[in-house]
Write a structure and sequence with these properties.
The complex is a heterodimer of chains A (255) and B (279). Chain A is mainly α and 255 residues long. Chain A contains 10 helices and no strands. Chain A has a single domain, classed as MetI-like fold. In chain A, helix 5 crosses helix 6 and helix 7 packs antiparallel against helix 8. The longest helix of chain A is centred in the C-terminal third of the chain and has 38 residues. By secondary structure, chain B is of the alpha/beta class. Chain B has a domain of 141 residues: 3-Layer(aba) Sandwich (Rossmann fold). Helices cover 35% and strands 22% of the residues of chain B. Chain B is built from 9 helices and 9 strands. In chain B, the strands form 2 sheets. In chain B, strands 5-6-7-3-8-9 form a 6-stranded mixed beta sheet, sandwiched between helices. In chain B, helix 4 packs across helix 5, helix 7 crosses helix 8 and helix 8 runs antiparallel to helix 9. The longest helix of chain B is centred in the last third of the chain and has 18 residues. The radius of gyration of chain B is 19 Å and the shape is globular. Chain B starts with a helix and ends with a helix. Classes of the chains: A mainly alpha (255), B alpha/beta (279). Chains A and B meet through helix 7 and helix 8 of A and loops of B. Bound molecules: adenosine-5'-triphosphate (ATP) and magnesium ion. Magnesium ion binds next to helix 2 of chain B. Chain A: This is Sulfonate ABC transporter. Chain A: It is a multi-pass membrane protein. Chain A: Keywords: Cell membrane, Membrane, Transmembrane, Transmembrane helix, Transport. Chain A: It is found in: Cell membrane.
């Protein structure tokens, strides 16, 4: 374990900010209706955790995020592979996809509500649409930029198309695919926050909007913090995965 | 072509037999007949006839852009000929291996797995690994088997590439300036290594190089390509291992360089050096 001074240094400012925030709130400099004290936010979290409300809302939000990512990311990845492998396929599908890309996916919200109402499908659809493009574009880019000399080497050494794909093309495209994934994770949470805030009957966004109606600022702040935490968690998971699969990459050679 | 017949007389051809110590695989001879290759309407190779007997070490030299790589790539089937035939006789259908100017190792595969790329399909994974380790041992890198390619030096990477080319015991080994990017000392080391494995395994070797002295140190025969055709075909009938800078090698080198620069007047500052070498 190397938890030396250096790694502690990065905590100085956040911890300091929370302390200042707490001090100002206790001194009455910040009104509780504007920004409740950290202790009040923590208390609200404790209360909701005990009642189980917090966990069920986090669960619902995380589930929507995961399903939306799986669907949108899965389709984006598959299309990225297909278009990377076949020029014909790319000519067929890419222009249409690029056209759709010019529509900001959040602009679809009214239409999506008309189509699906405010049930799960609407949120999942929006998340899937949001994560699709970063995954698609970066997968395609990754495959297109695989070192052609390596591909030629693979062919010259008698690799089958499948071997060429799994041993040369996919590993070569992986760094770029991860860039797409991490970008997609950001969009995933963003989309979900917006969608849940506008139209939902469960989830973190709903919890925040509901609390707003009752002027429970502590719960609103809590929801925001949990969103941030979930976003950080997803990014860290992606980073870990990246580290594990790209251990060959000079950037990760720490030994 | 007059230039060719003149020089052929001048150098009294007679293809020297390599001094092979051991032959594990039957070797393949290479025969090109009327081989031409153009890219678009740009002719690169014109009507090349060349026979490389099994087990011979052939070096191809020539100016940059004269079509050496194209000739080599056509021999191993990476390019199709525009016309003419290539015949690799007495060998398996996939008898040839090529070594490129760059190592072209997969950065995401351990060194031993990179060598395993060269193992022919069909055997078990354990056998492939064993063969790969043996090939690595041959190039002196057995102790680096589990490492990533990015930690190796340029010369070590090329040795891994050589192990990958050799692991399947090819009958023809095509080498496209594989030592071009190495420093002078590493180059000589690699040349010695290359000569040793060629003598041990006895494959037919075709080495493209822009370094005439390298060609003369290694090859049984040197072919000079000019304007897409064979301008010179010289037998190097000298005993191995060859001493660098010997009078015979210097003579041949001077003659080839003369031919290379002949048409454009050799720069005068090269002449004293050349005369010194011959004297
Ligand atoms: N795929 C290709 N498409 C079009 N032209 C090509 C292609 N490959 C080679 N050429 C052309 O063919 C000619 C010969 O190229 P080649 O690579 O065989 O030269 P070379 O003798 O190996 O040169 P060098 O010593 O610089 O490696 C060059 O003019 C090159 O531009
Ligand atoms: Mg070349």
């Amino acid at each position: 374990m190397r938890l030396d001074l250096r790694s502690l240094q990065s905590f100085i400012i956040p911890v300091g900010l929370i302390l200042v925030w707490q001090a100002l709130a206790t001194a009455g400099e910040i009104s509780g209706t504007v920004l409740p004290a950290p202790t009040a936010v923590f208390a609200a979290g404790w209360r909701l955790a005990l009642s189980g409300e917090l966990w069920s809302n986090i669960g619902v939000s995380a589930w929507r995020a995961a399903i939306g990512l799986a669907i949108g990311g899965g389709i984006g990845f598959t299309l990225g592979l297909a278009n990377g492998a076949s020029r014909l396929f790319e000519r067929l599908t890419d222009p249409t996809l690029q056209m759709i890309r010019t529509i900001p996916h959040l602009a679809m919200i009214p239409l999506v509500i008309l189509w699906f109402g405010i049930d799960e499908t609407a949120k999942i659809f929006l998340v899937a649409l949001g994560v699709f493009f970063p995954v698609y574009l970066n997968t395609l880019h990754g495959i297109r930029t695989v070192d052609s000399q390596l591909v030629e080497m693979g062919r010259a050494y008698g690799m089958s198309n499948w071997a060429l794909f799994t041993r040369v093309v996919l590993p070569g495209a992986l760094p770029s695919i991860f860039v797409g994934l991490r970008y997609a994770l950001g969009i995933m949470w963003l989309t979900l926050i917006v969608a849940e805030t506008i139209s939902a009957s469960s989830g973190l966004g709903y919890m925040a909007m509901n609390a707003r109606e009752f002027m429970m600022v502590d719960v609103v702040v809590l929801s925001i913090l949990i969103y941030a935490l979930l976003g950080k968690l997803a990014d860290s998971a992606a980073k870990l995965l990246e580290r594990a699969t790209l251990s060959w990459h000079p950037a990760y050679l720490s030994v | 072509m007059t230039a060719r017949s003149l020089s052929t007389v001048a150098f009294a051809p007679g293809v020297g037999r390599p001094v092979a110590l051991r032959r594990d695989a039957p070797n393949a001879s290479i025969t090109l007949r009327g081989l031409s290759k153009s890219f678009g309407d740009k002719p690169v190779l014109r009507d090349i006839d060349l026979h490389v007997p099994a087990g011979q070490f052939l070096a191809i030299v020539g100016r940059s852009g004269c079509g050496k790589s194209t000739l080599l790539r056509t021999i191993v089937g990476l390019e199709g000929p525009s016309s003419g035939t290539i015949q690799v006789a007495g060998g398996r259908s996939d008898a040839g291996r090529i070594m490129f100017q760059e190592p072209r190792l997969l950065p995401w595969a351990r060194i031993v797995d990179n060598v395993r790329v060269g193992v022919r399909n069909g055997g078990s994974k354990a056998d492939a690994r064993k063969a790969a380790l043996a090939a690595l041992d041959e190039v002196g890198l057995a102790d680096r088997a589990g490492e990533w390619p990015s930690v190796l030096s340029g010369g070590q990477k090329q040795r891994v590439a050589l192990a990958r080319a050799l692991v399947s015991h090819p009958q023809v080994l095509a080498l496209d300036e594989p030592l071009g990017a190495l420093d002078a000392l590493t180059r000589i080391e690699m040349q010695t290594l290359l000569e040793r494995v060629w003598r041990e395994q006895g494959f037919t070797a075709v080495l493209v190089t822009h370094d005439v002295s390298e060609a003369l140190a290694l090859a049984d025969r040197v072919v000079l390509i000019e304007n897409g055709a064979i301008a010179l075909d010289v037998a190097v009938d000298l005993p191995r291992p060859r001493r660098r800078g010997s009078v015979e090698i210097a003579k041949l080198e001077g003659a080839i360089l003369d031919k290379l620069f002949g048409d454009i007047e050799r720069p005068t500052d090269e002449s004293p050096l050349h005369r010194e070498a011959v004297a």
